[in-house]
């Protein structure tokens, strides 16, 4: 039976474990970066169709990583809000070089 997460703090370690392969995380990073670029493109042009590209690019790369690299089901199907927030936390941790610290925390908590 799948655990029910009640807080983002409890969910985030699970989220990271679902993204343990570096190539999967890289695909997420590319998709999120493209999504940010599309959002900036929308803000600078006001063309709403660009927002569709933001959504597609973000999910396309992430789902490729899950289905073909991790071979797991994206957490967004079960926890859409926590997954969305966790993706941006992971993105920031990767951008700042702190993702390994997060994985070390998970490892030390498991004993």
From TrEMBL:
Domain of life: Bacteria
Regions crossing the membrane: 26-43, 49-69
Pfam families per record: Mpo1-like
InterPro entries linked to this entry: Mpo1-like
Keywords in alphabetical order: Membrane, Transmembrane, Transmembrane helix
Name the UniProt record assigns to this protein: DUF962 domain-containing protein
